[in-house]
Structures are given as C-alpha cells and as structure tokens.
Amino acid sequence: MAEKVRLGFVPLVDCAIPVVARAMGFAEQENIDLELVREMSWAAIRDKLSYGVFEAAHLLAGIPIAARLGLGGVPVQHIVVPMALGRGGNAITVSTRLYQRMLEADPAAMHGPRGLSARALKKVIDEDRAAGRPVMSFATVFPFSSHNYELRYWMAAAGIDPDRDVNIGVIAPPRMFDSLRNGWVDGYCVGEPWNQRAVFHGDGVIVALKDDIWPRSPEKVLGIREDWVNSSPETVSGLVRALVRAAEWADQPGNRSELAQMLSEESNVGAPYEILKASLGGRPVLRPGEAPADIPDRHVFYRYTATFPWLSQGSWVGTQMKRWGQVPADSDLNSVVRQVYRPDLYRAAVADLDVAVPKHDWRVEGANDAEDRSFVGPDSFLDNTVFDPEKVS
C-alpha cells in the first residue's frame, strides 16, 4: 500500500516540481500517495509542517534556518532540507507611476543593465525626501525569504538604506498584485506569476529579475521534519527521487507548455495559462505593451545543480539574516546550516539515478573563475563580489 505524504505549497510557478511529481506519476512510482495542499501564506506552511499536518513542504530557503535559530515567534519542530526545488523566478516589480518617475529621474540607469535600476529609485527617494513626502512602501513575501534579501541587496547596491529610506512589509504572494493595483504598495519582490500578472494587466513594470541580482541563487527548498526523516528514511528517499525526476521533466523545453497548463489549474497556481506560459517559456514581458524579452533561464528546475542543497547557499542566506539584523552578529551560522541543509540525504536518495552531483557540499559563490562554472552555470553577483562560506563565522 502506498504511503500517504501530505505536502503543503504556495501557488507560485516554483511549486511545479511537486505538482509534476504527482501529476506525472513519479511519486506513485516510489509507492507514495502524494497529497498536495494549497496554502496562501508561508507562515501557514511553516506552522502546519511543524505541527505535523504536513510531512513535507515547498518552503522558502530561509525558513528552516530561521526555525533552527528560534526566529519567527512560534515554537517549531526542527526542519531539514534534503533538496532544493529549482532556481529563478523572482522579480522586482514597481507601479507604472513609480516606473515613470524612475525613468525621468535617471534614464541611463533605466536603459542600462536591469540590476542598476535601483540607482534611479535612489534619485526618486532623494527627491521625495527633499520635498517632504512620505517614504515609499515595498513588499516581500516573508522576513526570511530570498525575496526580502534580493530586494534589499538591489537597493543597498545603489546606496539605498532599506530600513530607513523605504518601508518594507510582508504580503502573501497571491495578494501582491492587488496591493500594487490598489496603491497600497509602490513595488514588491515576489515569484511568478505575480510579476507577469501586474505587467499583463498594465499595473506594473518589472525593473529587475532575480538573475540580475544573483543568478542560480537559493530560492525554494523541500522542507521536512527531522523526526520524519528518522522514522521514515525510505519514504524520504523515495520522495526526493520522485521530485528530482519531476524537476528533470519540468526542465525540458518541450514540456513547458504542458506544465503551464498544469499549473493554471485552480488547485495548483490558478493563474491564466498565457501568463504562466510567458514566464515558463523564457519569454517574459517586462513592460506593458512591449515585446517579450528573451530570458531562457527564467526558471531552472533541474539544470545547474538546481535540486542540490548547497551548504554554501544556505550559508549565504544566513549571512543575509545577520546583515539585516535578524540574528545576532556572533551567531555560528555555518554550524546551523550543517544541521539544516542535508546534502547527505540527497546523495543517498539519487545514488542509483543518472543525476550529476557535485564533489563538494560547499563552494565559493559568484567566482567567475570557478572550476565548476559549467556545472552550476553563471552566478555573478550584482556588485561583482564573491561569497566564500569559509570566511563566515
């Protein structure tokens, strides 16, 4: 008899891997009855995983680390990460009004590399301060999310202080678009399809993509309770195998239209097919009324070690928590990451599959001369820095 596994997810394009694992029979082939449960917020996902409502979850990469550090205000069970659930998909979208102001303030920044667009935002912020206007409001999906850290990184690289020069709040992903349309926020960082939706409806403009800030950076992970790993190791391995095979299927260009149709179902993401297809097909529309951009790696599910739980990427997430005052400066982040991110579970699960696995669990992120460049793909940071986890306390 198949073992029941309940997996919670938030309606975003990167819930594709568990959706495919169920729909295409990869979970069933591992003798797993995979039940997918749609939730609207990351806090609900985290809490239901912690209290045993779910065995597994589609999670933000930072939530398991934050939980291990005791952050978030609620008691949680220890969560471990045996695999990542792809890369890419995030973007920073601003209202059409703010976009016009940014364009007028600094046309060169707005027509140059997308990652530099925050320089125009800095000039708008300075104008508002000089005129005595209220600070603008931006939103991310969760305090311990890649979205929060990417938005802050983008701003800080242009000299904007995210804690003083703007307000940054938290809004659940499905509510982002309405918040922008109704003028409650001036911009946000969220995963797809909620950026494309704003563009397609003429209410927003995408001014930076995740790839403009740090390509191949950590995004979503498979979160499971540590006690379930100990009590059901074979099922955990089977789930990882099913999800890795699903990721490989989802990464095939010839399957992207079918995947968009699958995700458009109301029980999954529930967004219009055309919006999903534009993003999944690597042809997103960045500005209303313009031709699609050619960005083939907008969503990467399998290539470039997109399912491997790199300890170095978990370490980067931890350093962002430290950078923005979410954890004490003396926190032993790498020790925490070793407890949370479990490449040993990944390696054991895929040992019999034809899956390319890195030799090491840590790497220097963003190094242009890295030996494994072809293996992980381009991953230069916006500010041309590198991240060496060995230099993190």
Structure description:
It is a single chain. This protein is an alpha/beta fold and 393 residues long. Helices cover 40% and strands 15% of the residues. The chain has helices at residues 16-23, 26-29, 42-50, 63-68, 96-105, 107-111, 118-131, 146-156, 176-181, 194-200, 210-213, 226-231, 233-250, 256-264, 273-280, 311-323, 333-340, 343-349, 373-376; strands at 3-9, 32-38, 56-60, 79-84, 87-88, 90-95, 137-140, 167-170, 187-191, 204-209, 220-225, 299-300. The strands form three sheets. The protein has a five-stranded mixed β-sheet with strand order 2-1-3-11-4, with helices on both faces. The protein has a five-stranded mixed β-sheet with strand order 8-7-9-6-10, sandwiched between helices. Strands 5-12 form a two-stranded antiparallel ribbon. Helix 5 (96-105) crosses helix 7. It is globular and about 65 Å long. The termini are far apart. The model has no long low-confidence stretch (mean pLDDT 94).
Please tell me how large the radius of gyration is: 20 Å
Biggest sheet features: 5 strands, mixed
Mean pLDDT: 94
Number of beta-strand segments:
12
The backbone outline, from C-alpha atoms, is globular
Report the portion of residues in β strands.
15-25%
Supply the number of helical segments.
Answer: 19
Structural class: alpha/beta
Low-confidence stretches: none
Assembly form of the protein: single chain
The end-to-end span amounts to 47 Å
Give the helix level as a range of percent: 25-40%
Which strands sit side by side, in order, in the main sheet? 2-1-3-11-4
